[in-house]
Structure to design on (330 residues):
């Protein structure tokens, strides 16, 4: 079932309804500013298991626990270093997940068997209202494992149909998942780049290592999500920076900024999918663009952004999509 809800002033009757579904031990898909999440009450083990089952997610891949108030963090973790508290105050609510040492009260299923737990306060009135009613909510992105993260309620519906209640507040603003950073000790380690960049974090602490996409030789990895196959589009995906890297006569789909539209949209062999004017709109639209490109069924060329700001997170996601599409083809 899909319930349309006002993104800025969520109707309390609808929030109550969704909250009751959570309290009854079921899952609810809800919007955040990054992507839609598939939530269950973080301390309800059976409900959290349903998330893993519905997504087809490996059980050792931990979930992010979403809070609505800084004080809730102290119920979830044993220790909050002073500088870690500072980044939460600065960047919350917002697209930053911090990894801290978990209390026993956070079920092992929620944290994928790890000693630590990732926590974030989403900047979305619907998410915050829901958490205020139900308490901390564990939620991964609301896609089947191996699909792109959902930036609209329609995307959630494409993956789960009527199996879950979906709160529909329209498209998400950021469009890429939160930055994940381990702040237990310095140097802090970024496991996943996002809208809160390394430079923004470095104003508050020492960030010397980025583990982006890194997998240790023995197959172990500090952040389990990194070791799993990422979204592999069912069309071949290639990346490009300049128009002269595109094949001249092949029938292709091109996903790029509006700046390239005058050069490309008139060509008969090209289907052009716009990412809008800049890096921010590109981040917001890329997952939807990739889902569209799959419908066209053609080899797809995706424009890389400059390696700065949210362009870093965008590039990381499209590189993974291209790499995974290549592996499937081999
Ligand atoms: O923006 C977001 O973060 C969205 C919205 C719904 O909040 N959520 C999201 O969750 O992207 P998910 O499960 O798709 O990605 C969480 C990532 C995974 O790569 C996971 O391995 C990592 O965070 N992670 C979670 N807890 C961790 C922990 N304790 N230690 C290391 N990595 C962790
Ligand atoms: Mg995900």
């Amino acid at each position: 079932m899909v319930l349309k809800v006002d993104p800025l002033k969520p109707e309390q009757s609808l929030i109550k309804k969704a909250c009751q579904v959570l309290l009854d031990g079921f899952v609810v898909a809800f919007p955040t500013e990054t992507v839609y999440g598939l939530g269950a009450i973080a301390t309800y083990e059976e409900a959290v298991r349903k998330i893993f089952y519905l997504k087809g997610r490996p059980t050792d891949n931990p979930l992010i626990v979403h809070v609505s108030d800084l004080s809730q963090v102290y119920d979830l973790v044993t220790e909050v270093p002073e500088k870690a508290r500072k980044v939460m105050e600065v960047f919350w609510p917002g697209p930053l997940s911090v990894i801290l040492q978990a209390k026993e009260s956070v079920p092992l299923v929620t944290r994928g068997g790890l000693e630590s737990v990732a926590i974030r306060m989403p900047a979305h009135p619907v998410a915050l209202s829901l958490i205020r009613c139900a308490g901390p909510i564990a939620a991964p992105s609301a896609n089947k494992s191996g699909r792109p993260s959902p930036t609209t309620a329609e995307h959630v519906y494409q993956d789960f149909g009527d199996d879950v209640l979906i709160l529909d507040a329209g498209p998400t603003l950021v469009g890429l998942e939160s930055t994940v950073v381990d702040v237990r000790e310095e140097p802090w380690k970024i496991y996943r780049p996002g809208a809160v960049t390394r430079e923004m974090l470095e104003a508050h602490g020492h960030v010397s290592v980025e583990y982006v996409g890194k997998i240790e030789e023995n197959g172990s990895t500090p952040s389990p999500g990194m070791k799993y196959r990422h979204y592999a589009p069912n069309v071949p995906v290639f990346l490009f920076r300049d128009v002269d890297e595109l094949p001249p006569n092949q029938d292709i789909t091109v996903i790029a900024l509006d700046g390239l539209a005058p050069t490309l949209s008139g060509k008969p062999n090209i289907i052009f999918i716009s990412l809008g004017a800049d890096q921010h709109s590109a981040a917001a639209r890329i997952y939807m663009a990739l889902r569209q490109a799959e419908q066209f069924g053609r080899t797809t060329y995706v424009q890389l952004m400059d390696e700065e700001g949210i362009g870093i997170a965008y590039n990381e996601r499209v590189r993974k999509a291209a790499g995974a599409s290549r592996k499937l083809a081999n």
